[in-house]
Amino acid sequence: MKIIVEMGHPGHVHHFKNMIWDLEKKGHKVQICTMDKEVTLDLLDKYGFTYEVLGKNKSSGIIRKFPLLIGAELKMYLISKRFNPDLFICRGSPISAHISSIFRKPCISFNDTEHSSLVDSIVFPFLDVVLTPSCFIKNLGGKQIRYNGYHELAYLHPYNFGPNPEVLNELNLREGDTFIVLRFVSWNATHDVGQHGVQNKGQFVKELEKYGRVLITSEEDIGLEFEKYKINVSPDKLHDLLYYATLCVGDGGTTAVESAILGTPSIYVSSLVGTMGNLIELEDKYGLLLNFNDSDEALGKAVELIQKPNLKEDWKFKRNHLLREKIDVNAFMVGFVENYSNYLHL
Question: Which InterPro entries does the record associate with it (predicted)?
Answer without folding.
Answer: DUF354
